[in-house]
Amino acid sequence: MADKIFGILAEFKTPASILDAAGRAYAEGFRQFDCHTPFPVHGLDRAMGLAASKVPWLVLGGGLTGGSCGLLLQWWTSAVSYPLIIGGKPLFSYQAFVPVTFELTILLASFGAVFGMFALNRLPMFYHPIFRAPTFHRATDDRFFLSIEAKDPRFDVARTRQFLEAIGGENITVLEA
Amino acid sequence: MSQESAVSALEPAPLVEGPQDFNTITEKVCSIVEAPTPLAWYVFFAIASGCASMLLFMLGYLVWTGIGVWGLNNPIGWGWDITNFVFWIGIGHAGTLISAILFLFRQKWRTSINRAAEAMTLFAVACALIFPGFHVGRIWVAYWMAPIPNQMGMWPNFRSPLLWDVFAVSTYGTVSLLFWYVGLVPDVATLRDRATSRIRAMVYGALALGWRGSNRHWHNYEKAYMLLAGLSTPLVLSVHTIVSFDFAVSVIPGWHTTIFPPYFVAGAIFSGFAMVLTLLVLCRQFFGLKELITMRHLENMNKIMLATGSMVGYAYAMEFFIAWYSANPYEKFVFINRAFGDYSWAYWTMVTCNVIIPQLFWFRSLRTSIPVMFVISILINVGMWFERFVIIATSLHRDFLPSSWAYYTPTWVEMCTFIGSFGLFFMLFLLFVRFLPMVAIAEVKGVLPTANPHPDHRELHAEAH
Questions:
Q1: Interface pTM (ipTM) of the complex?
Q2: Does the pLDDT value for residue B17 go beyond 80?
Q3: SS3 of A149, please?
Q4: How high is the pLDDT of residue B455?
Q5: Which of helix, strand or coil describes residue A146?
Q6: I need a labelling partner for A29 at 20 to 30 A (CA). Which of A72, A122, B183, B197 fits?
Q7: pTM over 0.80, yes/no
Q8: Cα B174–B179–B184 angle (5° rounding)?
Q9: For residue B11, what are the CA distances in angstroms to B3, B5, B14, B351?
């Protein structure tokens, strides 16, 4: 499988240099590229031209599901399946159902945020070609990486490598798929 | 005084002290987890897990024999069990406040302390759940509280505050766990990448879910984290509100008051910060984290305790005012009895610890003194436990009919169960500091001055936020 290439990885030392590199890669026309940083670097999303995250929609969906199902559950159990008059109140005394509706809204909205975020990021993914780069373990410590993937139409091993060298990348590694 | 030093005196203290770069943060936090286990840890762990096993025996004894092994009677059907429940759940609230509310307000000083505070939340909620769980008596039918279709054709009563509480506390526990775990993923990835043994690489690798610091991931991650903070904020306020409904929705004089929800939330934050402070003063001392958890952090927490302690003091006074102003003789009797009746010793312990002692934090020399703040934080925890005890016991022990008046004293089983819950709490916390990064590595790196890619526009960005 040595001939199959995932992409090329370059190392940068500072947040400013990765931000600059990402901007240049985008200007060069690359779209299938990624940055790997120990913490979110301010401005990188815009430099990479990332569209707005879809997480909020999943949170909204989760919240609406939680709230409506919660209210429906309470209405059906209290007014239909097991009608029981308590304190002379109407069977569907919705005021009393506010707390549980609220909690279930929050619960499912949070599920939308957490599981939605992991799903959008395609995690868990325990194997990835990038982990085989010799210095990549520093991406969670103090180094910043730029990877350009082979599936980008502008990708060419020699020329992309030259480009990464030109913008100041170090320890340039060709990643095997 | 030169002009330069005058200006620097006005600048806020740095969030992280000493010459730090990204690598020193990684080293400082990870080395705690990677170094050989210190002997003192084993000693503390032995004591804590010993107490936790006592808890297990006490609960086993309770289930085997029946709820009569506790000192509850009629009319005092709630005693130390519910006191401990409210006490522990309240402690948890500071963790969520630090992680969610201070995050939304962009209080960047929270980054060094939020991880440990969130862990504390989880362990406190775990301790809290034990008490109402076993208080139901027949623990094996506790699943009746969940809306599960069953052969009896019955459903839980959704009009009961006690059931609201089940939903509130279980949602709170679940969301806190998720929030904590989401924050941990990048840091666990750091531990995975530094792992020297196969077992560490496997375990941390599994927990890190294959996190590779991708900016396309950070992009969604930051959004999810922000939304979780936004969801946790009303959640944490709702939890203690609903806990207070357990009391306020009833018709017992001394419980049936509208001030309870805000008063309980303030008290929860108050006691929670006290517990965070107790734990962090010890942690930064033992693990050499003084540059990450600075005096500024401790002082800020003391200021919050002063503020919330005063709010609690206001609530105590307002309860008395309303008892008089309502012209309700039962209400008036309960409050006079609370301050001067059989449980006056508990009431005045509460007032001393919660209202009077925190006022010492007005003095800068006292709120920046480690021994003073440590002692005060413990006294606040004592006081807040007594607050819940006073609310529960004094309102119940004088029933409407004098013939049912009684006094409640806990049995040795209740005392050992309470001590045991501390054992469980500290056991879990010790495991946490041993195996997980107790400071949020990625977040602390993000607040270093060098983390900002455009330092010239620092002020501009601070304003834009």
A1: 0.94
A2: no
A3: strand
A4: 57
A5: strand
A6: A122
A7: yes
A8: 125
A9: 13, 10, 9, 37
Domains of chain B: 15-452 (1.20.1630.10)
The residues near B226 (Cβ < 8 Å, ≥ 6 apart) are: B103, B104
Summarize pLDDT for B263-315 with one digit per residue, the tens: 999 999 999 999 999 998 988 888 878 888 888 889 999 999 999 999 999 99
The alpha-helical segments, DSSP class H, found in B195-250 are 198-208, 215-248
CA A55, A57, A63, A65 dihedral sign is negative
CB-closest option in B216, B223, B442 to A56: B223
Closest CA to B73 of B343, B393, B402, B336: B393
CA distance B228 to chain A (A): 6
- How far apart are alpha carbons B81 and B338 in whole angstroms? 20
Separation between Cα atoms, residue B441 and residue B179, nearest integer Å: 16
A86 touches chain B (CB under 8 A): yes
Name the 3-class secondary structure at B147. Answer: coil
- Tell me what the mean pLDDT of segment B205-234 comes to: 94
Residue B186 with chain A: CB contacts under 8 Å? 38-39, 140
Task: Write out chain A residues lying below 8 Å of B26, CB-based.
Answer: 38, 140-142
Q: Whole-angstrom Cα distance, residue A170 to residue A167?
A: 9
List the beta bridge partners of residue B192. Answer: none
Instruction: Using the structure block, give the residue that is written with the tokens 């904020």.
Output: B233
Residue B5 pLDDT class (50, 70, 90 cuts) = low
CB atoms inside a 10 Å sphere around CB B108: 16
Please state whether beta strands A170-176 and A33-36 pair in parallel, antiparallel, or not at all (unpaired): unpaired
Residue extents of the structural domains in chain A? 5-50+125-176, 55-120
